[in-house]
Amino acid sequence: MKNILFAVCVLTVAALISCTEKKDDNIYDYSDIDTNQKNDNEVTDYQTKPDYNTSKDDEEFSEEDVEERDDTEIIADDEMDEDIDDLTDDDSEHFPDGTIKNDDDPDPGKVCPNSYGIAQDSDILLIKDCNTIEGQLVIQNYQGTAINGLENLRMIGTEFNIINCPNLTSLSGFKNLEKVGDGMFITGNDALSDLSDLEKLDHIGGWFHVKQNDNMKKISLPVLKYVGKFIVTENDEMTSLDMPSIEESGDYFQIIKNYKLTSISSLKKLKKIGERLQISANYLLSSLEGLDNLETVTGYLRLTTGKALTDLKNLSNLSSAGGIEITGNDLITSLVGLEKITEITENVLIGGNKLASLKGLENITDIGGNLSISAAKEVVDLTDLSNLRNIGGELNISWNAALTSLDGLFTLTSLGGDLKIQSNALLPQCEADNFKTYLEGLSWTGTSTFSGNYGEGSCD
After folding, report:
1. Does pLDDT of 193 surpass 50?
2. How many CB atoms neighbour CB 387 within 10 A?
């Protein structure tokens, strides 16, 4: 009888152990949780997507553009049309860039394969032990002042968004977060003053969009080295960027309508920008200090509507730009700082209320797209363009109130598009006529449009 009782006890203990192990094995299996039904309002509400506007930047420039176009628009990108509110589970075996499952990478720890939303403290319990979230993490309409309990989190596979959390002042729960695979959208967090709690974040694979955070005084990301697409806009109290480690933006880098911004000096390591560098309507920014080591802008260099910006001298190491737009800057008198640029593959649009010289463009030999000198109100002649040989598109010289001569253009060897010389009040019409004759001697066959050139000088 004792042997029978002993055997029964052994079997009972074994059964208990088996149940316990089964429970442990499934503690992170959330496949039975219907996230969409349980947290529909909490998770998928956040589809207040970045409102990227359609731009005219890639169209031909005209004199009307100078007067009518919105110089502060955020540039649209085809990839931005993808919904950021897709919270379906990611069945892939790795992050989009392959970081999780790369055999050379360190153990990612506890991997949570789904996407998650946080609207209240209880939502944190589902992910408190996650080292890696393969999907999205969306914090929206959270009413607390801080997110705590996520100190184990190191990687987020797709998006990390913080939206409309009016009392949030601290992100200390993310102090160990190192990588976001896709993008971040941070908006409507009126009490959040900086991002310094993200002290280990060094890589954002996609867009980083910080918009309309009323008390955001600076962007503090001390170890961030790479960002895919950088947009900081309409943060009314922001005074500076604190990003001393940033080296590259894979696509565009845009700083727009931050009316109290006075410094970008921490960007000393930034060397390469992919699609576009745009700095527009930051009305107290007087210097581009911080861009001293920038070497390449694959797309457009766009500096517009700067009321305090005085010069471009901090761009002296920039040797490559796909296109250039420098317009509407109240205090810039020349383009000194762009001397290392020799070829432009796309369009060039130049203007400015105080612009008196095109010095800085003297080494450019080829422009692949259009060249427009419009509303450069104090430029007298174009001699700084005397090394320019080829313009692939249209040449537009319009609305230049002080222009008296086209000297500098008579060294061109080809013009691929039409010729427009209009509304230059002090330019004699014979200057335009002579230049047309010169082009025709080069077998140019484009169309010319002349009007409003009323200067009284003679042409020899």
Report:
1. yes
2. 14
